[in-house]
Design goal:
Elements: H1 2-11, H2 36-42, E1 49-54, E2 63-65, E3 70-79, H3 97-119, H4 139-150, H5 162-191, H6 201-206, E4 212-214, H7 220-224, H8 229-240, H9 249-257, E5 261-266, H10 267-276, E6 280-296, H11 302-315, H12 317-325, H13 349-407
Parallel strand pairs: 4-5
Antiparallel strand pairs: 1-6, 2-6, 3-5, 3-6
Amino acid sequence: MDLLKHLSDGLNFTYDLIGPPDGNWGAELDNGTWNGMVGQLQRKEIDMVATALTVLSQREMVMDFTQPYYYESTSILIKKPDPDEKQWTKLIDPFSSTVFLCVGISVPACSLLLFLFEKYNPFYRKVKEKKDIRVLHQFSELVWYMYGALLTHGGTHIAASTAGRTFLSCWWIFCIIIVATYSGNFVAVLSVTKETLPFEGIEGLVGQDIYKWGTIGGSATQHYQSGKAFYDGVLKFSRSDPTVLRGDYDAHILKVLKGEYAFLWDNIPMEISVINSCELAKVSTDMFSTYAIGLPNNSPFEKIFTDGIILTLESGLIDLWMTKVWPQHHSCRESFLTPTKPIAVLDIQIAFYIIGGGVCLAVLSLLAEFFKLKFQKYHQKRARAREEDEIQESVNHQETISKREILM
C-alpha cells in the first residue's frame, strides 16, 4: 500500500482497490485462461495488480511485470514440538547415529584383532608356564576388556607382547578421544536447552510421516511445487482435507496451531506470525520469490512504473516501510528453532585414524616378532648343529685314540 501510494503521488494517478472475486492469486486453467487477479488483468477488468504477486514465466505470457521491488524467501510454518517429548534422547544426542554405530562395531572388531595378535603371537611360545599373561587369549575376556577401556575402566591384565601392547595403546588413545568428546558435548546438551527442528527444508518435510502440509491454492508457491513430491502430498491430503489448499492465510495459521500441520508460504508474513505467537516456529527452505507490479500485456506504462520503482528502491523507502509493519517487541525468547549439531564421524575422524594406525603397527610388530623368532630359531639350529658337529668330532677323535691304543 505504501509503494502504491508513493507511485500514485509521483506519477500522478488515482486508484481504486478491488479484490479478486474468486479469492485466487492467479493460476492457469485447463482451457488456457487464468483465474484470480491474473485472470482479471488478462480480461482487462483491472488496470494493474499492486500486491505481492510473484513473477512467473507462465504469467508473463498473459501480462507484463515491472522491475521487481522485493525478493523473498519461502519458509515452512509449524507448531513448536514439545521439548519434553525428547528428554529421554539426551543420552544419545551428543553423537550422531553413525558415530554410535562405528564405535559399536569397533569394540568387537578390535577385540577380534587383539585376540589374533595375542593368540598366535610367537612371543607366548616361550612363556607357556605363565598363565597370568595369557588371560587375553580368551575372546570373551578381550571383549569385556575393550568395552571397559571405552568406559575408562582399566583391566587387571595387559598384553605382554609388543604387537598387543602397541595395539592396546592406540585403542586407549581412541577411547580417550571418544570419551572426552562425548563428555564435553553431553555437558553442553544438559546445560543448554535447545529446541530442535523435526525436519529441515522441503525434502525433510516430505520425507517424514507425522506432519501434513499445504499452501495457498492458486499461488506461485503451489505452481513451483507442481509435479514434485510436496505437491503430490498436498493433492493426497486435499482429498480428505480440502483446507490444505485454502486461500485464507489466517485459516492456515489456525490449522498450524492445532498441531501436526506444516504451512509453506512467504517468509515475511511467516516471521511476523512467529514473533506474535510463541507456539509457532519457522523452517527455512531454499525457495525464493520475486515480487513485482503486474500490468496488461504490452502496456505502455511498464517503463514508467519500472523507473518509479527503481527510484523508490534506491531511496531506501521500501526498507523504511518494512520497519513500520514489523512488530517492535518480541514476546518470545527465540523467534525460530535452531537445529542442534550432533558430533559426526568427520568431527572425530582422528580417533578412527589412530585405531587404523594401531592395527598397522600391531601387524608390523607381529611380523617383526615372527621374523625375530625365525631368526632366533635359525641361529639356535646352527648353534646346535655346530655343537653336535663338535661333539661328533670329539667322539670320533676319542675313538681314533682308543683304536690306536688297542693296536699298540
